[in-house]
Each structure stands twice: as structure tokens, then as C-alpha cells.
Design goal:
4 copies of one chain form a homotetramer.
Chain A (H helix, E strand, L loop, with lengths): L1 E6 L4 H12 L3 E7 L6 E2 H4 L10 E2 L4 H7 L2 E4 L6 H10 L3 E4 L9 H8 L6 H6 L1 E2 L2 H9 L3 E3 L3 H15 L9 E6 L14 H4 L4 E2 L8 H12 L6 E6 L6 E8 L10 H9 L6 E3 L17 E8 L2 E8 L7 H11 L10
Parallel strand pairs in A: 1-2, 1-5, 5-6, 6-8, 7-8, 9-11, 13-14
Antiparallel strand pairs in A: 3-4, 9-12, 10-11, 12-15, 14-15
Helix pairs in contact in A: 1-12, 7-12, 8-10
């Protein structure tokens, strides 16, 4: 039984973490905090939790966190996490950071995309990118997890087999991604009003999104070569889910044959509890994964082009579910605990 | 050809007024203003108008309005209109005010529900409540129209025949109303974010909404007796439309018989261009009227209880469409001009 | 550990039963069947279950059901259940029937509303109406549960305290109910196409819905007097959830005072694990209960009228959740097992 | 004043044609027909038209059509149009066919994608592809218009400048398209039920859609070279609108420079009444065009890749609006009549 704190409990990821942790047999939630006007019962903020948890949510207080928690989930806006992480680590707490603060190993790229200097380069160099399908062994012993972004989770999982095995042209990877609205967080801008989004659809940050360098960093590591993907995110008029449609060009003399690609993906991911590969000709839809921690992937070998479609729930495998998966690995709980 | 100004052009009602006026053969839009950071082409703010109108939208300037306009639509938040109306009227402009400022004849009730003292009681006493089905003759010569609220338009049109003819118990009128999100205006509160509203439904201001006194005022006039309706509004996860389900009790010895009620409504409204009565057993749905200026009404005589269902587009018959209908009457244009 | 069959596994209620049973520590799903062209893995039909269950779904076969199951959930269309129930009961299986076939004790009313003669009056007279908040003691020993309809669950739970305690006028109860689309089941009529429902809202079966006699039956029992409610259901453009807004008139000399009503409801339901009463002035919204087995209720004492608002998830407390709650009671499992 | 018939009046495109024609000052609707059980007032089928049109909709009867109409819109399912067109043309009627029957000049490809042999090759060879931006001169004198598909309209308009001017690699054109649900027509399959689509998103007919050969045919003509695009359509949970995100690779030594591309598009389309090019860095969203006949296009020059985003209303510029635009050209009415 471990004591867990959730900082940033009132956002979408925080709300989801509470929900998962309440179902987790090895976890006791001992701390909830957020930027908040005055302390308030969490079940007042989220009436759906009434009768299930009695905690008060208040402004974060580092001492209280340290006193009450073994592990801390930080579901904070970018740039806020790195203010808190050093003190938590120095008190030997384990931290799973859902923000982008510890994901990009190159602080210059961080500064460019998040428009602020990085303030904690020491821990940045030690953080583990929390994608279990790639870094499971390192996650087991990690003290600081940089939980991946939602788009990168879908894109990297979809591309890892072909990139790691060097089967496609690395210079022309195109990722056309579509996300539900919770991906933007619970922030108060007019762009996210119901009447602006309902019955609408648009691209945004066209090939200029802050998740592109994260995807590039991980794919480049896999390929052993600098990769720059073309990445265009779009906003879907729905709550949850990401679908990424990915176009890659086969390399000349590539080893895989028609219908070989599905088998290759199945083999590549065969031990993974949360990756499911569709049958040849089948593609996943959002509903297959929303409410779950799965990433479902369909592949079509279409002449020179290979089309890969991956779906995740942006708040689960794309955020809080993956964070708990990481926690389960760190504490040697069965990896799927509270996630099925 | 008249010159028209729209103050509050960036809200939902303002946007809709632009759209209607661009289709109106007797209208030239000569002024657009709104609370806005810096002057901007209206076609930048609403790209759908690009190529159809070249005007700049800026902060309202009374002198410019007076110089450029014959008639002014005020699509402003409540309490702002009454700051401007006196000056417009003193310069002999005609004004159609879409806010609540000139609707409630009793300034005390206004103060109670809009939480501010009324500042222009002189014109309040002269304003005409812009519901053509009741006040057409007065609208013809009006200089200041108080354009009705969206809920009151639906509720009053649905109830007028039975209340005016004294057929139902006036003490137990129940109005269960449901509105799309644009009814709340384009305002920046977290309650109206997409993810708060999508797939949700709730009642709000339960029997405490500011449109109740407006309904009470008009029904009381019709009945010649003080009426207090029970009014519960609800928020629908969709953009446009109001559906009001109304429950009234027949009075003992009431003159109408089963199946007589439909005929009665048809006769009552037979000359009205924008009221359509459904056949016995048929009820209207939002889609029948969204995008139109119609109010469709269905009635069921059900034992002691009569159920009346009325639908309107809250931005058209419930706001901007009705405002243009009023303008058409004031200028003796065919009443349906630009509204079909 | 009990063996459970789900007949009608491909409908919304069936899908939900699978989901709940997969999380239930005392349940093994041993049979899945439905009206289906050819046998197919359930994880092909619902890809979200892939990796979690390997069963084939086929046409129902009574012998197989009897061989493999201790308890059978019937999630079938009305009139089909009564063909199967007698044989299951004669083989000493326990049955929880989610259809309407065993709810209405008066077979004449059944025939009138479901347009077919009842074929199993013997078991009809023995069935227990599966609303735990009223019939828990009888459910414990039941062999045949008539699981309540979705609208009746919300309406009866909302009205039980005031009706049982005789606090309101029983002749003028008005229930204005709004339901998500899954309430209609997964049936193929053009009325339920996306483009017919999206951005629309309407009333249907106005005071003529087959759930009215079910509500009347149970309220009449509570009151010891024949009750005929006015019941108008509406269709919301969303997937899940029912919100019922109920209007009742206080009886003269009624014992409760302003603010007394909330306390009364809290006291009435204080031992119920799935009923939550809102604070005075607070009302529930769909999101508070969607995905849960709770029924949340808010009450406003408003002069002569009392307004009661109840919300449930139509597929959980309104169908499959309540069915599992009944199963938990029948087998003496903790009542909330797999439902939190 | 011309007499117009609409065959297939009860589908989405037919409904939209009625709406546009009712606003058209030079058009009288003289015939409405559809596959229908029994003749019925069109205002019964679409209550929103009540009071605006009194026609009866019945089963199509060729003689009546020929007697009553100068021009006929065929808004029929594919393969039905070619049964009717020969007789209409032989009676010297003008025909605008919204189906795919006269679009693909190669009858073999038609047979492959529409799974039936073409039965009217003579007229197929004479039909004019009704995309005014390319074929305006031919449309003026046409007797049979093959009105373009919705996806092809968006894709071809977006690609014409770079393909016609030979600026991009023709072998690697990728079209990632997203459409609202009305694009599928008003047909009764379970895939299009509200609860299957709401809150979901998916790709379908991945690189196997029947609109791909239509796009290929027209782009190949423009390029003077065989083109095979990669085309992946997706289904959006909304009613109306198509957004196509297109990825093309610049050719080595291509003549255009950064920021030159926007100017090039503006120049290319400068006389077109319904094409609007966004400013550099701006991209269109569905709401900019839904309810209009515009196609809005945004372009980003992004290293080796050019990203082009085009939006249309699938029922207007993608179907009925474009059909009326074609009619306006054929009869020498101002091209935008009834379309603004």
C-alpha cells in the first residue's frame, strides 16, 4: 500500500488520476492540491466522486506533500513542475510528472517551444521518458518519470517498429493527428467554448506544435539518425481520444512484403499488455480505446506508401493511465492493475 | 434603403444580425462596433463573411453611430444598453434593443433580477415590447423596441391563446424549457467550455431565472390578473434552439373540448407569418425551426392537463430574427423580408 | 464464483453487462448470445474487449445456457424474454430480465402498451420488481427479477419519499424527462441516425410512453391509491443519461417546511449506497452520474410547487448497473461490487 | 424564370436543393419526387418547409418530369441516374446529375468502383464535369452536368494550382480528408446511428474510396500525366463539412519561394466568386464555410513539404450549392444567385 499525492487535481488529468487511484487496491490517495481559490472538498468540485473520497483539495504545500506521500503525480501546466520537482526528489519522493518539463533532453529546444528557460537541468538529464514499451527496464528503477505527451504516445508507438527496423524513409514521415478537446486541458480561453467547437473542425499549430520535437527526439534515438517529422494536429468536436493517421514511404529494397507488415507489428508488440494490432485491412476507431489504457494500431501496405493508424484515449494511455502504468512498473505491481 | 448600425457585433446575436442584414434588400450596414481590443475587419473576426462585407469593427462611438445610422440594433450585455439609448433617441434615431434593459416595466423587478438600478426610467416607460404577435400596431410607430428574451418569446407565444381566452388555471402554469448554448451569449466562463457541456445536460437557475418576470409581466397583462409561472430552464448540448414544454391545468367548465384546442390555436394565429401550429398529435422538434424565424407549436389535450410544446431558434425568433421582423414592421417592409 | 450468461449481448445493455462482469471478482461470463447472423468472437463485435475476453457470441440455445450458467441476464427486446424465462426457471436458473416483460403486474396493461398478449402470467405474478431501494428484502430470495425501466428508476426514486409520506397532491404529478439516445436501444430505424439527432431535441410519445404505467404501478402501491402521472419523455443529442424534472404540488397542511425537504430526503435514503441527495439549492447534472450506478437527486421547495430533479446513467442504474446490483443482493456479494 | 424538378428530394442533397431553389428569384420548383411509400406533402416530410412550399413529393414519373420541367436535378443514389438521364436528354431537358454516374470517363473504372456496368456510355462521353473553376466555359453550353463528388471538389480545388503549374512531386500526393456524416447520405445502416458516431472518429475505405479515381482523373488531366493520389477519408462526429489536409513534396528547382505560394494561389483564383485564399499562416476551419458555397484554402510552405488545407460544406459546394452554381452558369444568371 503506497501513499499517493496528486498535484493539479482539478484538471482533466488530475480528475482521471483520482478516478484510477480510487480503483487501485495498492494505493491510498493522501494528498490533493491545485491552484484553487479556497480549500474545498474534492467531491464538491467533482460531484461524481461524492461518497467515494472525503479529501479536501487545497493549494499545494510542499511540506504537506512530503509528509504525506510516497509518490507524487504532477498534473501541472508546463513550466510549473520544474519549480517543485527538485524539492520532492531531494526528499526522496518518487515523482511522475505529466507536464512537458522533463521530456525534452535538449534544454534549448525546450526553451524554444515552451518559451521559458529550463530551471532544473540536473534532473532533466536524469529523468526517464515514461513510455513503458520502450523504456520499461529504466522505469523500474526511476525516481523521476517524464510522462509522455498524448500525441507523442500515439505517434511513437505507431512508428517504433518501422523506424527501429529501418524500413521506411525517415525524411518524409507525415503524421496527421486528430485530438478530442480534453487534450488542451481545462483552461479558460474562448477558443474552447462549446459553441466554437461543436460542429466545427480545424487544424492548429500546423507543423509547429510543441509535441513535434518530443516525437523527433524519440524517433531519432530509435533510428540513430536525426528525424524531422511533418506533424499537423487537428481538433475534434468530442471529449476524449486521439487518432493519428501516419504516412510513410517504404525504402527501396525494404525487407517486408505485402501482408508482412501486420505480422511484423504483432511480433514486435506481442508481450505488451496495452498494445493491440488490428488484423490486415482492419483499422481502429476512437471508441475501441476511449475509457481504456490501450493503444490500437492498424496498418495498410499500399504500394510505395504505408498507412499506419493509431488510437489512444488521450487522458489514459496519453496521460493518467500511462502515469499509473509507470507507477505499477516502479512498484512492481501487476502492470495492468486498476487499468482494466 | 436604410442605414443600419449594429452595436455588439461580435456576439452571437450581432453575428446573426450581420448575416440577416447582408441578405436584406432594403438595408445597408453602415456601422459595426463592439467591446474590442483594437479595430479589426469584421471578416477577420468572422471569416465566413469574407468577400461579403468590408467594414471595420471598432469600439462604439456615439457620434459616429448618430452620423451614419438611421436605425441601431443594440446587441449588448444587459445594463450597457441603457447607457446609450437616451443619446440615440435624443438624436431621433430608432433603436431596437436586444438586451433586457427596456423589457421590464417595473424598475424594481429589473433591479432585483439584473442587480443594478435602472438609469433610464423615462424611456423605459415608452419602450414597446417587440413581440409582433401581440404588439404589432404599436411597433409600427415605435422609436424604441425592447426586443423580447428568447425563453419569453417561446413561452408567451405558446401560452397566449389559453391565457388570453382564460381557459386554464393561471396559478399552476409550469414551463420546463431547454435551450442551446448560444442562449448564454459568447462569454468567457468555464461553465461553457466544450468539455463541460458536451454529453452533459442540466437544469440551472431553477425557478430563479431573470426571464421569469418577463414572462409573468406579459401573461399578467393578457390575463388581467397577476400570474407567477413556475419556470425551470435547462442547458442542451447543442448550439441553437429552444424547446419549451408547458403544462397547464384546464379550468372547470372550460369551453374547449378534446381536439378543439388545435383548431383554436390555428384560428388564433392564422394571420401570423411566423407561427405554425402542428396537427393534432404532432409536436415540433428543434430542427423544424433552427435557421428560421418560425415558432412552431404543438398541443395535446390530455385529461385535466394540457401539454403545449413550442420551439424557436433562440438567435432568430428568440433574438436577431425577431429584431429584424420588428424593423420590417417599423419601416413598412414586407414583414418576412430577409427572414425566409 | 458464479457462472453468468448474457442473452442479448450485442445491445447497449448487453455490452455494458459484459464490461461490468469483466470487472466483477465473483463472476465468470460463461455464455454470450444474441440475434446474430453467424457466431463471432465478441471482441470482433466490440473491439474494445479484445484481450479481455475470448468468448464467441452466437444465437441463443437454451440447453447451452442451462448447462453453462447459474444466473442469466436477459437483455432482450420486449416480448422475447417471456418466451425463454419459463424454461430457465424450470431448470432452477436465476434470471434477471432487463426487458419489460415481467414488470407490469396487470397483463391487460402490458397488452395495451406492448401490443401483444402476455404469455407467462404465472411467473409474471411471481417476479420481483428489481428496485433495491424499495424491494431489497424480496430481491434477496428472488428467482426472477424484473429489472426496472430507465425512466421509472429515475422517476420512482425521485418521488418515493414524498409519495410514500403522502406530502404531495397525487393527481397532478408532472414528470418531464430527458434521455440520451442509448435509451432507445441499438435498433435500426432512421429516427436514430446521427444527422437526425445531432443538434436536435424533441419530445416523443407525449404522455403516451410505455414507462408511464410502470411508474403508475409502483407509485400507486406506495401511496395506497391509484396514481396517474403526466409523463413527457424527450430525446437528448447525447449517448447516456436521464434527467427527470418533476413538479409536484404540496398538499394543504403538509407537514414539511421550507428546507425541511432536503433533510427528509437525506434521512429517507441514508442507508442507500447508490442514492445521493444534493445540498439545498444544488441540483445534479448528467455528468455527476454517467459511468456510475448512482442516482443523484436535488429538491427545491418553491412556494406551492416542489421541484425534484433526478439523474441516472440510463445504461447503469437504469439498466445493467441495477441488474448487477440485484445480482449482488441475490448472492449476498457486497452490494457495490464491480459498481464503483 | 425556369421550371425545375428535383428527383431524390428526400435525401440530404435534395433537401438542400429545395432550400436553395426556394430562395432563387429565377426558379420555380415544379416537381419533387423520390423513392417513397406514398405521395406526401414535402412540408410533412420536412416540417421546416411548411408555409413555404405546397408541393407533393411522389415516386418519379418521367412523363411528368418532362412535362413540368426545363431543368432536372438528379439527387439519386449512384447507378440510378443513368436509367433516367437518356430519356430526359432525348426530350431536350437539361440535367444536373449529383450522382457519380457521369463523372468517370473510363467506364471500366466506374464498373470497378461502383460494382455495376455503365449503361449509358454515349452520354457519359458527352457529360461535363461540373467544377466551374476548371470547366466554366463548357458548363455554359452543357446539357448534362456530372456534378463533382464532395471530396473531389475540395481536393481538386486545393491541388489545381500546384498540379497545373507542375510545382510538386505528382507521385507522392497525400490527401487526408475528414467529412461530416451527411456526406454518407440518408441511408439506413447501423454504422450511422447516433450512438455509433457521437464521440467517435475513424478512418474508412482507407486508400480504397470511390472518390479517389475521380480525383485522379481530374488531376491527371491537369498534369498531362497519370496521377495516383493516396487518399484516406475519415468520418467526423458532426453534420456538415469537409476538411482536407493535403501533403505534397516540392519538386527540385521548383520556381516558387517561401511566401510565394500564397500569392500564387490568390492570383490563380482571383476571379473566382467562391474561392477564398487565407493569409499566410492562416488556415480555414469548417465553420468558415458551413452554410455557404465557398471553398476556403490555406497553404503552408514547410521545408520540402507543402501543406494545403481546404474546407467546403459537403452539401453546398460539395453537392447542391455547386449544382445551383452550375445551373446559374448554364442559364446566364449571376453565378452567386441564391448562393450568398
Amino acid at each position: 500500500m503506497i501513499n499517493v499525492g496528486i498535484v493539479g487535481a482539478t484538471g482533466y488529468a488530475g480528475e482521471e488520476l483520482i478516478d484510477i487511484c480510487l480503483r487501485h487496491p495498492n494505493v491510498r490517495i493522501t494528498h490533493l492540491s491545485a491552484k484553487i481559490d479556497k480549500p474545498e472538498e474534492i467531491s464538491k468540485i467533482f460531484p461524481k466522486f461524492k461518497g467515494r473520497i472525503g479529501l479536501i483539495c487545497k493549494e499545494p504545500n510542499i511540506k504537506e506533500i512530503i509528509t504525506n506521500c510516497d509518490l507524487v503525480f504532477l498534473a501541472l501546466p508546463h513550466t510549473v513542475s520544474m519549480e517543485i520537482v527538485p524539492r520532492l526528489l531531494s526528499d526522496r519522493k518518487k515523482v511522475i510528472d505529466l507536464s512537458a518539463d522533463y521530456r525534452l533532453k535538449d534544454a534549448k529546444i525546450y526553451a524554444q517551444f515552451y518559451e521559458t528557460k529550463h530551471k532544473d537541468k540536473i534532473h532533466l538529464s536524469q529523468s526517464i521518458y515514461g513510455l513503458p514499451e520502450i523504456y520499461r527496464a529504466k522505469i523500474e528503477n526511476a525516481r523521476l518519470i517524464a510522462n509522455p505527451g498524448c500525441y507523442p504516445t500515439a505517434a511513437i508507438l505507431a512508428l517504433t517498429p518501422v523506424v527501429a527496423l529501418n524500413l521506411v524513409d525517415l525524411d518524409t514521415i507525415i503524421i496527421d493527428a486528430k485530438s478530442g478537446v480534453t487534450g488542451a486541458g481545462r483552461k479558460a480561453t474562448q477558443d474552447f467554448f462549446f459553441s466554437e467547437i461543436d460542429e466545427d473542425f480545424k487544424a492548429y499549430k500546423v507543423n509547429a506544435h510543441q509535441h513535434a520535437p518530443e516525437i523527433n527526439q524519440e524517433l531519432s534515438k530509435l533510428a540513430g539518425k536525426k528525424i524531422n517529422v511533418t506533424f499537423v494536429p487537428h481538433l475534434l468536436p468530442l471529449n476524449r481520444g486521439i487518432l493519428a493517421t501516419i504516412y510513410v514511404k517504404k525504402v527501396q529494397g525494404s525487407r517486408f512484403k505485402v501482408q508482412g507488415l501486420n505480422a511484423l507489428y504483432k511480433k514486435f508488440y506481442k508481450k505488451e499488455p496495452f498494445i493491440r494490432i488490428k488484423e490486415e485491412g482492419d483499422f481502429p476507431k476512437l471508441k475501441d480505446v476511449v475509457g481504456t489504457n490501450y493503444c490500437d494500431i492498424g496498418i495498410k501496405d499500399s504500394g510505395n506508401i504505408v498507412i499506419i493508424i493509431a488510437v489512444i484515449d488521450n487522458l489514459l494511455k496519453g496521460a493518467s493511465g500511462q502515469a499509473v502504468q509507470n507507477m505499477n512498473i516502479m512498484y512492481n505491481f501487476p502492470e495492468y492493475t486498476a487499468l482494466l
